[in-house]
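User: quick one, fold this
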Amino acid sequence: MVLQRSDVEKIAHLARLAVSEEELAAYASSLSDILKFVERMDSADVSRVAPMAHPLDAVQRLREDAVRESSQREKFQAIAPRVEAGLYLVPKVIE
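Assistant:
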C-alpha cells in the first residue's frame, strides 16, 4: 500500500502534528515502507504457532494467600480528627 501526500496530511491532522511541505514526501515514503512491512508479516504462515502472552515459558511463583497482619483500624482511627461508623470524615471540598 502506497500512501499519497493527501493521506499523510490527513494522518498528520488526526495526530495533531505539524508537518511541513518538505517533510510530506519523506513521511509518505517512510509510512508506505512500514505498511509494506506489515503486509509482508501478514502473509507469514502462523497456523502452527500457538498464541502466547509471553515469549518465555515462565510460571509465576505464588505465595500462600494468608492474612499476615491483624486489623489496626481502631488504632489508626483513634488519632483521626473525625470518625463515624468506621469511616474517616473529611471536610467538604466540592460544593
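User: anything notable?
Assistant: Strands lie at 83-84, 87-88.
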